[in-house]
Amino acid sequence: MVREIALHTLEGVTDAEISQHGFCTGDGLGLSLLRFVRSRGSSSCAKGRRAVMIVHGLTTSSDMFIQPEHRNLVSFLLDEGIDEVWTLDFRMSNRHPYNLQPTRYSMDDCAVYDIPAAVAAIRRLTGDPAGNELQLHVIAHCLGSMSVAMALFGGTIRGIRSCVLNSVALTPHVPRWSMVKGHVFPFIVERILQQPYVSPRWSDDPRLTLGKLLSKGVSLFHRECDVPACHMLSLMWGTGWPALYHHHNLDERTHRRGGDLYGPVGLNYHRHVMKMLRRGHRTVRMRKAPEYDVLPDDYLVAAESIETPCLLLTGRDNRVFSDSNLHCHRALEKAAPGRHRLDIVEGYGHQDVFMGARVDRDVFPRLMDFISANA
To answer: Which class for 87: exposed (0-12), middle (13-18), buried (19 or more C-beta within 10 A)?
Structure first.
């Protein structure tokens, strides 16, 4: 494989001090945060300092927010005066090995263990463990967004100043073909092909494998481009040709390196989403084990008492979680009228809201306006 852009590069953020911080979850996983600051001495907490934690979705990583191909979200926030930006790589990240192992991980684990541990780590590292001084805002995407919403409305994190939730939050909806795939895809991959995960990179296998054969077969039905990883991503998520984004919104370099930006993953997260869809499009627990008893049976019951304002963001052409955030905003409006906002980005889909070539003009100002309004 010849890479135009290095794997896990940090070169997309210039004129900033970058440091990596590891932390552990209550169930024994080592996770990581990248911290970006523009001036020295910013480690001391001062009243009114603004920090943003950014959370990726399933199979991606911090890389989606620090791309060198365009003005990325981290650089934009620093340019706009945010004092420090933190990108979280939690158990869904392709920067960690956990997606390559057969597990029963679900969004429950992220809401109970990952998100609270990350928030605590940021407050500890900024010298404000009680969360009284630092203004902490959150921007989250996809199943990372759902995990943050579950943590926020489930009460495992508190004191968040504002929260941007892209694509899906507490009321998942998907296209009809995605429902069909959700029922049959795990059986095909795990039982018939005997694969522990599905990978957008299977076309790059150095020898003939079942995964490579599947990738070639999928490409036969996707004539919209010549990038096999793009075809596999449309199989893994959503409904469309392509499913995750509009091609014309992406820098072509972003399009070609899809196999790096999205990693392999097992299918238990998909099962969790399917369970939610079967339970009336409501966020529900995957398992009833005692360690998850801290999470509610119905996340919307406590919505009235959650004071953190949320921006429910989605692309108009979202082919992964369709109109999920429209339903969520409607439900939250009933519980707390006027507290939360809905913003629909015309001409965008699911992933290009953060990874498109023009997002610094089309999307990011909306996020900054919301943060500033709630500072």
So the answer is: buried
